[in-house]
Design a protein that fits this description.
Layout (H helix, E strand, L loop, with lengths): L1 H13 L2 H43 L10 E3 L17 E5 L7 E4 L6 H6 L4 H17 L4 H6 L1 H7 L4 H32 L11 H29 L3 H30 L5 H39 L7 H56 L3 H12 L4 H21 L4 E9 L2 E8 L21 H31 L5
Antiparallel strand pairs: 1-2, 2-3, 4-5
Helix pairs in contact: 1-7, 2-4, 2-7, 4-8, 4-9, 7-8, 7-14, 8-9, 8-12, 8-14, 9-11, 10-11, 12-14
């Protein structure tokens, strides 16, 4: 009996104009979104390769103690499915001898319209367009048949209500999957035509398969909710208004209001305050260094001052001058390690302020993310972005790799040079760098951030498993709710 009802549901859905509108939109938008994202990926990959080649070519033979090594992060191939945070992700590291990293993001400000309105990709099409289409498919699944009177006729034949509701959910869902699967197949064929996008590298097939599975689970969740709303109402117009209201809350309100609530629940300082704290830490240690250098200078000149003020023995001017020069040389030698010590202390103090701010930001972000997970649309967005290598996990991974790159450059470049300060006058001196014995600067290889690996499948699943489980729980909850509610549905 249930298979007859499923076949009936499929036949009725296919002849409905909503099916053909949804099919046309799927077949047009999904391949188009993947094609546009593919071209964007190819441009970013070409920019990455060009920048890296220019850096290596320009740096050959110019490595010294103050050399700034640059490491570039290649774009993730799976960003064609979900752009995520790709416009905010850091893409270039610049190392320094002091250990402070200079990091830049790849925000493309040349296309202001794209920044203002956002870009279309697979994740956007699913969470925005296809979710609305799924609601349109299901909002009248029960109320429509009630209003036409066909539901009463079906139940008059002693057909089990459980079979009816199962057939409606399964039948309409299978029909919707057909154009979606066709559009995905066309999109994958479009991707296969690219010379730079390879399905056989870096676990891409497994990633794509899991992303499509999660997307299908999300669509099933939306279908179950649409049927549930249809069983909770008795008029199609009311059902349509309710599902649209739910979509607005899930897609527009929850993602935007959750960060605002997190800021209220866990407020943190603004970036301007953090910069002021770092500047204050620098100034305090700099003042402390100045005071210590002054005390050191006075201690070195104490002997000369004693000779000048001693009334018993009056040395000649040459003796005073010689003693002053020796005292100045001793001061210049002893202040170098002192300055290096405080240079490290300043860097450490600034790093502590930055780490404290980053930790507070991370806590605030966790609160916002957990609040936004009340929306299945947010759950899908988080899962797809992490699997595509454009989520927060990729950002954290890049920061760890940046620190490792700094350490590699420290060993390969900076540790091969010595810094000596040469006095040039009464007000200070100049730093002179020279290679250590047996080191030829021209033989040092240009450091590169080679062998970069994006977020792996296991790492992505460790982060996004919560979103996948929540999507499954939402689906079960809405399915059971629709099933139970229809068993008591009044068809009169």
């Amino acid at each position: 009996m249930i298979w007859i009802l499923i076949r009936k549901e499929i036949q009725e859905t296919i002849v409905d104009s909503r099916f053909w509108i949804a099919s046309v939109l799927c077949v047009l938008l999904v391949p188009l979104g993947l094609y546009v994202s593919l071209k964007n990926y190819e441009q970013r990959l070409e920019s990455y390769q060009t920048s890296n080649q220019q850096y290596v070519r320009h740096s050959r033979g110019r490595i010294d103690a103050n050399f700034k090594a640059k490491g570039y992060r290649p774009p993730s191939p799976l960003s064609v499915f979900s752009g995520g945070l790709k416009d905010l992700l850091n893409y270039k590291i610049t190392t320094t001898r002091t250990g402070n990293l200079e990091i830049e993001s790849e925000l493309d400000s040349t296309n202001l319209q794209a920044v203002l309105f956002g870009k279309i990709d697979f994740a956007y099409i699913v969470t925005t367009v296809l979710s609305i289409l799924a609601f349109i498919f299901t909002f009248s699944s029960v109320t429509g048949e009630r209003e036409m009177g066909t539901l009463r006729l079906i139940l008059a034949n002693a057909t089990p209500r459980s079979s009816i509701i199962l057939a409606k959910i399964i039948g309409s869902y299978l029909v919707f999957l057909a154009p979606f699967a066709l559009s995905v197949l066309i999109g994958l064929l479009v991707l296969s035509t690219s010379r730079v996008f390879s399905f056989g590298s870096g676990g891409i097939p497994q990633m794509v398969a899991i992303m499509l599975f999660i997307t299908s689970l999300f669509m099933f969740c939306i279908f179950c909710l649409g049927v549930l709303v249809s069983t909770l109402t008795h008029r199609s117009l009311v059902s349509m208004i309710v599902v649209l209201l739910i979509w607005v809350i899930w897609a527009l309100i929850v993602p935007k209001i959750s960060p605002m609530i997190a800021q209220i629940v866990y407020p943190i300082q603004s970036p301007q305050v953090v910069e002021a704290q770092k500047q204050m830490a620098r100034e305090n240690l700099q003042n402390e260094l100045t005071a210590k250098k002054s005390d050191l200078f006075k201690s070195k000149l104490a002997g000369v001052q004693k000779m000048m003020t001693d009334g018993g023995a009056q040395p000649n001017g040459n003796q005073w001058q010689k003693s002053a020069i020796e005292a100045k040389q001793a001061f210049d030698q002893e202040k170098v390690p002192l300055e290096r010590e405080y240079e490290k202390r300043i860097d450490e103090a600034v790093r502590l302020v930055e780490n404290a701010y980053v930790n507070k930001q991370r806590i605030q972000t966790i609160i916002a993310v957990n609040l936004s997970r009340l929306s299945p649309i947010c759950c899908l967005t988080y899962a797809l972005s992490e699997l595509a290598g454009t989520g927060t996990l990729e950002m954290q991974s890049f920061m760890r790799k940046a620190q490792q790159f700094q350490e590699q450059v420290q060993d390969a470049v900076y540790d091969n040079f010595e810094i000596m300060e040469i006095p040039t006058g009464p007000r200070g001196g100049m730093n002179v760098a020279y290679a250590k014995d047996g080191i030829d600067p021209n033989s040092i290889q240009v450091p590169q951030l080679s062998g970069y690996q994006h977020t792996t499948l296991s790492e992505a699943l460790q982060t996004s498993w919560v979103d996948i489980v929540l999507l499954a729980l939402f689906s079960i909850l809405f399915f059971v709710g629709a099933y139970v509610k229809f068993l008591k549905y009044d068809v009169r």
